[in-house]
Amino acid sequence: MSTATRTLSTAEERREAVLQAAEKAFAARGYHGTPTTEIAKAAGISQAYLFRLFPTKRELFVALVDRCYERTVATFAEAADRAAAADDGTSPLAAMGAAYGELLRNRDALLLQLQTHAAADDPEVREAVRRGFRRLYELVARRSEATDAELQTWFAHGMLMNVVAAMRADELDEPWARALTCWD
């Protein structure tokens, strides 16, 4: 007979496990294509318990949208802080752009971000995406002090980065791919 004691996870630990499992599943198959049974199984819990933590699939997805933007905002803020502290002439905008390039190396994070945009036909998801993008824009605008035109160009470049990263254009040795994956 084993004398080992079983350690129970807190609801917050289970919630984190669900979010991690959901990020991978939603990144791979999107909001509409991912069954909650798959997420529950990957998190090591029952579907009923998943719904105690997140009463609807939509609430779980919105929590991931929020998490996705929180990660990006935190990454940009840290990059802007480093640029300010370095005092080497690197603009906060350039530092945030470079940090975004690093963030895109996380394939699940990239695909989840794209899936959040694809699911924005749902009003609650759309509002979460808008809320997150608003926070992102406000941070970049405040920390960079860039003009509206500069911000528009910078964000457009970020969207191009998403597209070429999603199709893994950096793996190609073709003129168009080299031109579009040069982040400098």
Task: Describe the structure concisely for a colleague.
With 184 residues, the chain is mostly helical. The chain has helices at residues 11-33, 36-43, 47-53, 57-86, 92-103, 107-118, 123-144, 148-166, 175-180.
Describe the protein's architecture and organization.
- It is a single chain.
- The chain is an all-alpha fold.
- The protein has a domain at 57-180.
- The chain is 76% helix and 0% strand.
- The chain contains 9 helices and no strands.
- Helix 4 (57-86) packs parallel to helix 7.
- The mean pLDDT is 91.
Topology:
Blueprint: H1 11-33, H2 36-43, H3 47-53, H4 57-86, H5 92-103, H6 107-118, H7 123-144, H8 148-166, H9 175-180
Helix pairs in contact: 1-2, 1-4, 1-6, 4-5, 4-6, 4-7
Look at the helices and sheets and give the structural class. Answer: mainly alpha
Q: What count of helical segments does DSSP give?
A: 9
Distance between the termini: 63 Å
Shape: globular
What are the defining features of this structure?
184 residues; mainly alpha; globular
